[in-house]
Amino acid sequence: MAEIQRKQIAAYEQRGPFWGRLTQFGAAVAAVAAIVVTTLVCDTVASFYPGTGVVKSSPAERPAEATVRDCRRVGPVSGDGFGYWWHCEVTIRTHDGREVDTVVKHSIVTPDDRGKPVEFREACYEKDNADCRYGRPAWRVWALALEMLRMVRNAMLLLLLCGVWYALQRTVLGVPRYYARLRRREAKKPVSRAEERLRGADGGGEPARG
Q1: How far, rounded to the nearest angstrom, does the alpha carbon of residue 167 sit from its chain's CA centroid?
Q2: Rounded to an integer, what distance in angstroms lies between the CA atom of residue 56 and that of residue 48?
Q3: Can you tell me the mean pLDDT for 9-22?
């Protein structure tokens, strides 16, 4: 670790303070760009799934029927990801006779579906038919795969956000000052008895006695 720090400090000093900080800022910008691209790619993959998103048996999906009204196209970059997608206003008739007006995204329905009933599913996450989601019949393995994709995406975003914070600190402080501050923090940390014994053994001295 110390060798890596020495090499990074040497590379920074070789570039000079201005270009060294600019390089670190460029790394922060690249990490932000990676966050945006990762999010859009995952949103694009998720947009191909037409179902309600239910993974487990609860809440239960119930049959419904949709009638497509007005549609608008979004893209080439949007909350649905890359490409062009349809957002359509629909009237949904549920299994118990209710009529729900809502908007479905991700091209779950398109203008081609106008004038004919579309088989749908309803999944309500709260009592009294609150927080309901709508979609076409879909294999639940798709929903499970998307849930796993979201977990991987969130882990990647967390790592990239840490990378942005890391690069911005090095941009503001400079690499030598950043590592100097890091060493001061490490020196202030309390040392456990096991570490004291280990240091005593490495230094040839008598280990600390508890």
Answers
A1: 20
A2: 20
A3: 88
Cβ atoms of residues 133 and 108 within 8 Å: no
Q: Does pLDDT of 210 surpass 70?
A: no
pLDDT value of position 196: 56
CA atoms within 13 A on the CB side of 47: 24
CA 96 to chain centre: 37
Mean pLDDT in residue range 167-171 = 92
**6 phi, psi to nearest 5 deg:** -60, -40
In sign, the C-alpha dihedral spanning 112, 114, 116, 117 is: positive
In angstroms, what is the C-alpha Rg of the chain?
28
DSSP-based helix, strand, coil % in the chain, nearest 5: 50, 25, 25
Query: Distance between CA 81 and CA 39 in Å, rounded?
Result: 8
Domains and CATH numbers, the chain: 2-39+147-199 (no CATH), 62-137 (2.40.50)
Task: Examine the pLDDT at 135 and tell me if it is beyond 70.
Answer: yes
In the block, residue with structure tokens 């007005």: 70
- Joined together, the tokens standing for residue 132 give 């309901």
Reading the block at residue 178, the tokens are 């950043």
> Which pair of structure tokens corresponds to residue 66?
């949709």
CB-based burial of residue 58 (10 Å sphere; 0-12 exposed, 13-18 middle, 19+ buried)? exposed
